[in-house]
Specification:
Elements lengths: L1 E3 L7 E3 L6 H11 L11 H11 L7 H8 L41 E2 L9 H9 L2 E6 L5 E5 L8 E4 L3 E4 L12 H10 L9
Antiparallel strand pairs: 1-2, 3-7, 4-5, 5-6, 6-7
């Protein structure tokens, strides 16, 4: 069980190593996946991906792509959940610079748009390319990432051309639960992503 905390945030435990079968069933229903898992990758393909990239995907996402579905046109987000090996059409690069094993560099929101100084290019590149897989896009370069390495492993982040912020009630801006399951639940309930005052 991993605990994530930061300045001013309470600790919220997330189980990233085990998936409750009921949670997996809930995710299947939320994205409208086939019950036979025909679009799922299977455990051997997921393990091969993890070995190639030097990571272990956090649960419940790991079991979701292995047993339920590798992507979903229905969503989340607005333009659908992309496959494990894919990037949204509007990603802006071919992904060749991405390094999933290198830790994701942030633990707090970062809004670089409007800063007085230009953002550090190496840090900015790391935010987009290190320690995360891209779940999908809401268009206009607003991409959702699942963090797979670093202190925020298991959390979902919105990363756009203007800034990056974690999803989950303890981080503000939303009433949703953190992590992949909380992110999917929030979408399935028809809630706005940023629904907290």
């Amino acid at each position: 069980m991993a605990e994530i905390a930061g300045p001013g945030w309470y600790q919220f435990p997330m189980n990233l190593e085990y998936v409750d079968p009921a949670v997996l069933a809930e995710l299947r229903e939320a994205v409208g996946a086939d019950d036979d898992g025909a679009s799922a990758l299977g455990r051997p393909a997921v393990r091969a991906f993890e070995q190639r990239h030097g990571v272990v995907l956090p649960e419940p996402y790991r079991s979701f792509v292995a047993e339920v579905s590798d992507g979903s046109k229905a969503g989340p987000p607005d333009y659908g959940l992309v496959g494990l090996e894919d990037l949204p059409a509007d990603y802006g690069s071919d992904g060749s610079e991405r390094d999933l094993a290198r830790p994701f560099p942030l633990t707090e929101p970062w809004l670089w748009e409007g800063e007085d100084d230009e953002p550090d290019e190496a840090r900015l590149r790391s935010v987009f390319d290190d320690g995360s897989i891209v779940l999908g896009t809401d268009g206009c370069g607003m991409n959702w990432h699942l963090i797979v390495t670093g202190p925020h492993r298991g959390h979902v982040w919105m990363i756009s051309g203007e800034g990056a912020m974690p999803f989950g009630a303890e981080f503000g801006h939303t009433t949703g639960e953190p992590g992949f399951a909380g992110w999917v639940r929030h979408w399935a309930a028809g809630e706005e992503w940023f629904d907290a005052g």
